[in-house]
Amino acid sequence: MNFRPKVAIIGAGFAGMAVVRALRDTDAEITLVDRNNHHLFQPFLFQVATSILEPAEIATPIRSLVHDMANVRVEMREAKRIDAARRVVIMTEGDDLAYDILVVATGARTSYFGHESEWAQHAQGLKTLPDALAARNRLLTAFERAELETDPAKQARNMTVVVVGGGPAGVAITGTISEFVQRTLPSDFRKIDLRRARVVLVEAGPRLLSAFSEAHSTYAMQALRGAGVEVRLGVPVSNVDAEGVMIGGERIEAATVLWCAGVQGVPLARTLGAPLAPNGTVKVDKDFSIPGHQDCFVIGDAAHLIGPDGRPVPGLASIAQQQGRFVGELIAARLAGSVPPTAPEPFLPNKLATITRHEGIAEFAGRSITGFVAWLMWGLLHLRTLSDGYSKIAILGNWLRLLITYRRSARLIVEAPSETNAGESPAMKAA
Ligand SMILES: Cc1cc2nc3c(=O)[nH]c(=O)nc-3n(C[C@H](O)[C@H](O)[C@H](O)COP(=O)(O)OP(=O)(O)OC[C@H]3O[C@@H](n4cnc5c(N)ncnc54)[C@H](O)[C@@H]3O)c2cc1C
To answer: Which partner for 223 in 213, 288, 320, 355 could form a disulfide, CB atoms 3.0-4.6 Å apart?
Structure first.
């Protein structure tokens, strides 16, 4: 009987799926493990959080993505630890998974810079679908409470949103929330004066979008201010609690605090015993293997690599896909006994950011574009990466509607009832 190498891939994100596609015609026995049953398109998470898109439009069942790949088995479970010496992955449930070749593509998670236990419960992160739905619930519930409130201070707190982190995700969600509050909600509410609502973006560094040119940082700041956002630069958050945030020496009372400030490696990657960068991502060799283990690869946001500009390669979908494709081709060449591909030079990706529904920034091949054309480029280039054709059509429809009318259909507060308060709405629980 022929030997069929066992390839285990942990994580069905951009990087993991690219490995699977590159190995589809090999003899390998592939096990694709993910703790979720869906592949998530994270770049559009902020549009779920702001009621523009529905979850199903940005997530695809993993099984449907590999249904025509006979050599791929999908397991929905969570990897807990890797024993590289024994070549097994220990799971949170079920048997250990033995492998000949392992690819760790587990992405990154939100970092609260050492304040996870105090701040995470109050400042909603934005990495997963539950995160986006929780952010949407918080935002919509706060305005529902404001409509009922008679105390002016409490009403003002319910109408204040603070976003922490002035990178692409923070800028995008802040601009979108401000438009939502100023343009969409006024026709829904009778009592509250939405011109008094505050949307505040807080960035600890000296400028927004630090990966972009200074001119574009200024452009983004002006566009946000034009959309009614208060931008605070150079002020780190020093505390977050249930009722607001402290920035510098200033207290901002806010019912909705969203955290887009940092990412860190996932705990699983630490169990490899490989050297780590300060943020917990795994330092990899040029071919993405880890020192001393040629058959164990770490790719995508979980990996730490220095780019041609001397800075760590940024966590981007296109880069995760490039790395996944390369590692898949490398494994396929090893299995076939053919010449392995040379490692790709980490490339400097196109930089795209969206600010409001008609303002964006694009930097690519030495050129720069701002305004609606850049917004369109951002939208169409990301849409091209989506794997599901029906979702593309649905998203285009939602964007068109937003562009023409400012209407957003997904303005729903949907929370899973807990056992103790099944049937209560979030507003009732808070009362
Ligand atoms: C809000 C937001 C906006 C973004 N905007 C952009 C953008 O505009 N452009 C861009 O290019 N990039 C953007 N990114 C970054 C981009 O989404 C990431 O770089 C990309 O998703 C990384 O791919 P990955 O495969 O490494 O990880 P992920 O896509 O995060 O996939 C990791 C997978 O591993 C699974 N997993 C994790 N741990 C375990 C475990 N222990 N056991 C089993 N499964 C596990 C997860 O469930 C997940 O499916 C954005 C990210 C966020 C959060």
So the answer is: 355
Non-local CB neighbours of 275 within 8 Å, separated by 6+ positions: 282, 283, 291
Q: What is the overall mean pLDDT for the chain?
A: 92
Least confident of 116-120, 153-157, 419-423: 419-423
d(CA 16, CA 9): 6
Q: What is the pLDDT of residue 420?
A: 45
Tokens of residue 8, six digits: 């285990």
13 lines ligand 1 (CB under 6 A): yes
Reported confidence tier of residue 416, pLDDT bands at 50, 70, 90? low
Asked if 155 contacts 192 with a C-beta cutoff of 8 angstroms, the reply is yes
Predicted local distance difference test score (pLDDT) of residue 422: 44
Dihedral (CA of 368, 369, 375, 376) sign: negative
Expressed in angstroms, the distance from the first to the final Cα of the chain is: 67
Which of 104, 101, 107, 106 has the alpha carbon at shortest distance from 331? 101
- Domains within the chain, CATH numbers bracketed: 6-35+77-111+263-336 (3.50.50.60), 116-261 (3.50.50.100)
For the record, the structure tokens of 134 come out as: 């929780």
CA 42 to ligand 1: nearest atom: 17
Answer for the pair 396, 402: CB distance below 8 angstroms, yes or no. Answer: no
- Residue 132 amino acid letter: A
CB of 91 closer than 8 Å to CB of 83: no
Is the C-beta atom of 84 inside 6 A of ligand 1? no
Q: Whose CA is nearest to atom 23 of ligand 1?
A: 14
